[in-house]
Design the sequence.
């Protein structure tokens, strides 16, 4: 059986990406990890995850959560580079 770490390593996702999305969507980290690992298997899923990360940056910025906005921006930048997406 694969651990969550194995799953994230296979999908090239970070713990912080999973945690940020889990918090934003209001779901447990383990569920977010499974969903995100599935999403990155398709181009459409990669685009959806990138959109969620951008929305999280916008939401956190608008809410005055500067630390969370900075974390989300850093993860969006890393994800964009890993999946060769335009910024």
Sequence:
């Amino acid at each position: 059986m694969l651990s969550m770490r194995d799953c994230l390593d296979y999908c090239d996702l970070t713990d912080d990406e999973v945690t940020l999305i889990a918090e934003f969507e209001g779901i447990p980290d383990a569920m977010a990890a499974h969903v995100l690992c599935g999403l990155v298997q398709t181009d459409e899923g990669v685009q959806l995850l990138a959109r969620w990360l951008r929305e999280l940056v916008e939401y956190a910025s608008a809410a005055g959560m500067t630390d969370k906005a900075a974390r989300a921006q850093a993860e969006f930048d890393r994800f964009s580079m890993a999946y060769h997406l335009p910024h």
Summary: The helical segments are 4-11, 15-25, 29-39, 43-62, 66-82. Residues 4-82 form one domain. Residues 18 and 35 are 9 Å apart (CA to CA). The chain has one domain: 4-82.
